[in-house]
Amino acid sequence: MTTNRKSRREFLLKTLQGSALTATGALGWFYLIQQQAQASPHAVRPPGAESREEFYARCIKCGQCVQACPFDTLDLAEAGSYVPVGTPYFVPRQTPCYLCPDIPCQEACPTGAISETLEKIEDSRMGLAVIDIENCLSWQGLRCEICYRECPLKDTAISVEHQPRRLSKHAMLVPLVHSDACTGCGICEKVCPTQQAAIRIVPPELVQGEIGEHYRLGWKSETSITQDFKSSTDQSAKDSENPALDYLNQDNEL
What we know:
Elements: H1 2-37, H2 52-58, H3 64-68, E1 75-76, E2 88-89, H4 104-108, E3 128-131, H5 146-150, E4 158-164, E5 171-177, H6 187-191, E6 199-202, H7 224-240, H8 243-249
Antiparallel strand pairs: 1-2, 3-6, 4-5
């Protein structure tokens, strides 16, 4: 009789322990799923990473890309951070991506979360550099242009433009970012000398708009009409360069 009661108690105790473990595991899994769903869109992922949803679906949190990075750029997110636990990301202000031509993180990824279709590191789009012109030294009239000089795709991803200065006749040299070439490597953010970087890497979808298909930019389309227009304008330009035609077009006074 005593043995049966003891066996029953042990059975109930093990059942309760198993239920507690199951509940704890379920809560932990729920936390991970919830954190992944609410992950900050500001996280900068490795070069060649698929879309946010696709990347987090494919990434198995193995950390092999982190180990393969020669600059220790990548890190694995810890619990409580704004990035899903165990997924790779980097903080440009701390350590940017130095655009390794052989893309070692891609080679190390076993699942294709870092896309295998990326052939040139210059074609990666980890994010987009955005300039805060209210705090950028160059836009305030000081000589800086550090982001421009340090950009690995200088004159392609970042160029410098002359802008008139308000208080003097001297022109300002201000940096401009070109979204079609910016890789989002974050080197510009790293080297920015202001206390808080005046140029930052953010996901393009947070700052870029979309024109919409109902707007037609006819002058950018290659049609017979635009070709005829270009031909006529080119001919007009050539005529204006011909002094004889310019003379014939003038009103001659007797």
